[in-house]
Amino acid sequence: MKNLSLALSSLALVAVGVLYFLHFSSAGASSSSSEVVRPGDFQMAYINSDSVLKHYEFVKVNMEKLEAKGKKLDQDLQNRAQSLQNDITAYQRNYGNMTIGQAKAVEEDLGKKRQNLEMYQRGLEQDLMTEQSAMTEDLYKKITAYLKVYAEQKQLQVVFKYNPGSDLLYGGAGIDITSEVIAGLNDQYKKDQAAGANVKSDSTAAKKK
């Protein structure tokens, strides 16, 4: 039964980190402006994506939520696995007192329970992956939307991603906008959270009326 036990909380942390990194890799050099930029006017900057992931409050909050959910699901799965193991142990203990027909019936029942447990395990994994994918897409939209506004304000044509795995091998401190972007993202996140809280409050008040 050991192979039925999953460390879903660890799966959540690792998979989310990988997905976030992959989306940052695809965020690269994008520009919504159709204006022709002369070489001398070309402005660029970069962000350290590792630092953004580490300090962006949206990532922290959602990673904690997903980790907590993963641990809860993992515990539930292990409890179910232990219950099945108890049934198997009871069968082995009582096998000598069973008829061939009784033993066969119990074995078939245990086989079905094991199959159901494995299906449940796969369902949990799929649910987590779906939630991770949604979080990744939301993160990508938030960062690229913010960078679009930031780039227009700063007259930037390109914002690169910089980390040990990126194609950007060097970036001078003068074009490192990581700290400003993190501060701006966190400020926007607080505003979004406050707006969401106000909407819930208004909705609750309306229902009471």
**Helix share bin:** over 70%
Number of strands: 2
What string gives the helices and strands in order? HEHHHEH
Radius of gyration: 26 Å
Q: Main β-sheet: number of strands, strand sense, barrel status? A: 2 strands, parallel
Structural class: mainly alpha
For this structure, the quaternary state is: single chain
Taken as a percent bin, the fraction of beta residues is under 5%
Mean pLDDT: 81
- Placed side by side, the strands forming the largest sheet appear as 1-2
Q: Provide the low-confidence segments as ranges.
A: 1-8, 10-15, 21-34
Structure overview:
This protein is mainly alpha-helical and about 210 residues long. It contains five helices and two strands. The protein has a two-stranded parallel ribbon. The chain starts with 7 loop residues before the first helix and ends with a helix. Residues about 1-10, about 10-15 and about 20-35 have low confidence and may be disordered.
